[in-house]
Amino acid sequence: MKAETLLKVENMTVRFAVKRGRGFGKNAHLHAVDDVSFTVKCGETLAIVGESGSGKTTTALAVARLVNSYKGKVLLGDTDLLALGDEDLRQARARVQFIFQDPYSSLNPRLRASDIVREPMDSLGDMSEAEKSERVDFLFNAVGLRPEQQRLFPHQFSGGQRQRIGIARALATQPELIICDEPVSALDVAVQAQILNLLRKLQKDFGLTYLFISHDLGVVQHMCDSIAVMYMGKIVEHGSRLDIFNAPQHPYTRALLSAVPSVDKARRAQTKRILIPGDPPDPVNLPAGCRFANRCPVVQDICRRDEPELRNGVACHFPNAEL
Amino acid sequence: MSLIDPENTIPEARSPFSEAWEMFRGNTAAMIALVILCLIVLGAIFGPYLYPTDPFDMVWAPFSPPGADGFILGTDYLGRDLLAALIHGARVSIIIGLAAAAVSILIGVTVGALAGFYKGWVEELLMRITEFFQVLPTLLFSMVIVALFGASLPMITFAIGVVSWTAVARITRSEFLRIRELEYVMASRASGATNAKLMFRVILPNALPPIIVQAALMVGSAILFEAGLSFLGLTDPNVVSWGQVIGSNRQYILDASYTVTIPGLAIFITVLCISLVGDGLNDALNPKLRSR
Amino acid sequence: MALLSVKNLRIEIKTRAGVAPVIDDLSFDLDAGESLSFVGESGCGKSMTALALMGLLPEGVGSVASGSITFDGEDLTQASEARLRALRGNDISMIFQEPMTSLNPLYTVGEQIAEVLRAHQGLSRKQAWDQAVELLDAVRIPNARARAEDYPFQMSGGQRQRVMIAIALACQPKILIADEPTTALDVTVQAQIFDLLQDMRRQTGSAIILITHDMGAVAEMAERMIVMYAGRKAELGPVDTIIAHPRHPYTAGLISCVPHILSTLTSEREDLVEVPGIVPALQDFGKDLCLFASRCRHAQPKCVNQRPPEIAFGNTHQAACWRAEEL
Ligand SMILES: Nc1ncnc2c1ncn2[C@@H]1O[C@H](COP(=O)(O)OP(=O)(O)OP(=O)(O)O)[C@@H](O)[C@H]1O
Ligand SMILES: Nc1ncnc2c1ncn2[C@@H]1O[C@H](COP(=O)(O)OP(=O)(O)OP(=O)(O)O)[C@@H](O)[C@H]1O
Ligand SMILES: [Mg+2]
Ligand SMILES: [Mg+2]
Asked: Do B5 and C289 touch (CB under 8 A)?
């Protein structure tokens, strides 16, 4: 079955004005997301991976229009989210929901668990009170919380339970797309497994589509159908799960994969650690050419001159070069 | 069989505020202060009915010391009953304290909330205004207001409120700046909450704890402020308040010091209790002391 | 004889509900130059163990209730504060989790390293500075002489953690304790830090105690490991043996609940093995039963009636589980 495309992001750029130095003069811009395009198919999971500061969260926020994009298109089905006016946007928010990283700051401490889950239905949609209560009951059950717990306040839950409440809230308006921004990185490993299994089960049961952000490649490998690897605001490689993990092409992807410590002895024996020394360049003053050039083990002159385009799923002048 | 399973025991639902009250109750000093405050407030409400002597009536010879001639607290330079002044004056002092605090909270929270929520030029403008009020010499400025517009009670209240809202504005703004970046605010936004809802239903309730503490302390300082203005004679001479009693007797501070010390003590005890309660609130509402 | 020998250590902590043992009957040995790893979920007492070894238990809150920590023939639980101060940073040193906050923002990194050298080794200002630069070079900070003049905020997270390592290694300690040194860092940086630690261990012969919750990191870095659960030692043994055949159900859970990247990935994806529930609250730590029982698939009535003994498998591997032999 060939699934149809649910989300199509085209040439999206997000930039922030940053103050540099003293005095007046022109503000510099930090391109947190730079000309990024990707698609997510209905019922599948696209993972965005990359190091800290590569623009993962900004991409996610821009897709949900929680930060403003500078240019580009975000097509959800046929609607361009970036072109919507205020009230249309507010209504469209029911279709895209967010699951946050920090289970401690993502729930309003003054509300009871049931009210937190109910909030999106209060702001959007036109359900009656009885229908809302029924849906809250249903959601609590779906995420594995007990009905008696609806009355409790967030601080009375463990981290994993709080994340379940966050998931229930995201499901409340029956969204088409759920964006998960590092949903398990603040949790203990055992609790991580509980939440990951829950997310997969919900996907199966309700046919959800996830945009899944993580820096943990093990988790990504387990959750996604396809992957976009980001570096300094650019997608450097975009492909299916098996392609990326078994045959990575971009030197950065390969370095990233080789850096993950593994309990698997066979994998440890067969992977050669690819070191990428140095730091990423200053995001405000990006160098010409490929952004990875200063750390790339196979860099050539052209890399410092011309910026590679994303072609056949990889943005590199010399994909698959011998490392 | 005793299984330990912290996730499956369902505790009683307890809101952050009820936990704070629990914590507050454990604070002996604050509880004592709260009880005394309640007594003072009850006294202010019901005292005038139980002790109806008019504080402006000259009932006895002047400068009768406390205890003598049947007047528990003695009489002042015009032979007016000091106990009556204390009891009747409590109302005005406390009302001015509360009302002035309310005025400054109202102005401060509005300015701080708008500045913290909208950022950008709104914030710049509002914060410059706040700074302007902050650098004004407060006593002088309130004296000018009272001198210009007359020393009626509402004007005094307004004058005190207008010079003391800047602290509230700064606290509110910084809480708003902190909370607006938290993920639950983002979550509300992602599920279609309007700006008004975000500001008043989501962020403001969470910003309240330090504002409440500040409000409590402000009541105390407003009472002091009123006393200061009265001492300088900037007050409504037809209304008795603690500060007014001190002010009218200030010439006799050396000859009949009790006429000044007794109302002074009343102010001192009230303000002290208010700050103890404020401190207690601060400890109880401060999430760092509370386990998550 | 072992370099460090911990015997029946019990550390109690005062909580609102009373006194609770954060570390309960912990025994282990550490040989010179060895690398040992502590794993376990949050709140299981890993950092407490590290702090106890450093003599840095939170004052007025935690204290050693019984047991001994013998370092080089000297019982540290009996040592004076002055003696501990002399040992700290010199013979035993520690790297903390947060590279952002564990450096003093007001001094250059060079000064901070030199300070340690002057305090412990009595070097002159000039000598200490030169050695600080050498150390920065050793932890592979490019252009070390110039970077020594930088303040912490001028460095990236990975570089700061390297500076921390340089400080910790300045006096060539016999034991280096690293408490989740890479949790705040990216994997590529983590890999570099791990490489660096391994190299340093080879060069200086320091023993390393690595605290982590990542089994992959343990497999990569350590020879032996201790699995901690709720203040108790659940399992101790050689890393390869334990990963190949964990005897304690908690260890098995920790290994299999994480989605690992395997040598070849297939399109198949099983659900992760779940360890239900969470670590018990601190006030329950002292109870006379297996604290893992409520989360354990293999629990029997015996498990909730009595604390399990440590069962030995050969002389290097022990597991504290009633059913360790069958599993
Ligand atoms: N509101 C903002 N104003 C200015 N710069 C920002 C803002 N938000 C993000 N940035 C910058 O944009 C870049 C991308 O940030 P982003 O948070 O998207 O990264 P990330 O990939 O999610 O990283 P992490 O793994 O640390 O969460 C960073 O350089 C960051 O400093
Ligand atoms: N200063 C303190 N006061 C009171 N309790 C403390 C203190 N420090 C730690 N604890 C408690 O001691 C227990 C063990 O904590 P410890 O820091 O050793 O855990 P850990 O295994 O290092 O966890 P993590 O992986 O989160 O670092 C926890 O329950 C914690 O709440
Ligand atoms: Mg992020
Ligand atoms: Mg710790």
From this structure: no
Whether C281 and chain A come into contact, CB under 8 Å, resolves to no
Distance from CA of A194 to the nearest CA of C (A): 6
Same domain, A298 and A225: no
Cα–Cα distance between B236 and B146 in angstroms, integer? 10
Number of the ligand closest to the Cα of C279: 2
Contact at CB, A264 and C262, closer than 8 angstroms: yes
A71 and A41 share a domain? yes
CB contact under 8 A, C301 and B1: yes
* A86, A99, A105, A211, best to mutate vs chain B, most B CBs in 10 Å: A105
ipTM tops 0.95: no
Please state the pTM of the whole predicted model. 0.87
Task: Identify the CA nearest to C6 among candidates C64, C86, C81.
Answer: C64
Q: Which residues of C touch B22 (CB under 8 A)?
A: none
| Angle subtended by helix axes B153-163 and B138-149, to nearest 10 | 150
Residues A63, A194 within the same domain: yes
d(CA B202, CA B193): 9
C213 and A189 within 8 Å at the Cβ level: the answer is: yes
The residue whose CA has the least distance to atom 24 of ligand 2 is C42
Q: The CATH number of the domain where B170 resides is what?
A: 1.10.3720.10
Closest residue in A to C158 (Cα) is: A279
Q: What is the pLDDT of residues C157-214, one digit of tens each?
A: 888 888 988 898 888 899 999 999 888 788 888 898 898 889 889 988 899 999 998 9
| Maximal C-alpha separation, chain B | 82
Question: With contacts defined as CB-CB under 8 Å, which chain A residues touch B14?
Answer: 153, 156
Q: Are residues A213 and A287 in the same domain?
A: no
| Number of compact structural domains in chain B | 1
Helix (H) or strand (E) holding C12: strand C4-15
Q: Supply angle C-alpha B115, B166, B98, rounded to 5.
A: 115
CA distance C98 to B102: 43
Q: What CATH number does residue A32 fall under? A: 3.40.50.300
Chain B: partners with 3+ C-beta pairs within 8 Å: A, C
**End-to-end Cα distance, chain C:** 33
Q: Are A100 and B187 in contact (CB under 8 A)?
A: yes
Nearest protein Cα to ligand 2, atom 28: C43
Which ligand has its closest atom nearest to the C-alpha of C24?
2
pLDDT per position as a tens digit, C259-305: 888 777 888 888 888 888 889 988 888 888 999 999 999 999 999 99
Interface of A with C in 169-228 (CB under 8 A): 188-194, 196-197, 200, 215, 217-219, 221-223
Give the pLDDT confidence of B91-132 residue by residue, as tens digits: 888 888 889 999 999 999 999 999 999 878 888 899 999 999
Domains of chain C, earliest start first: 4-91+171-320 (3.40.50.300), 92-170 (no CATH)
For residue C251, give both structure tokens. Answer: 């260890």
Q: Tell whether A123 is covered by a domain.
A: no
Closest CA to B202 of B218, B170, B179: B179
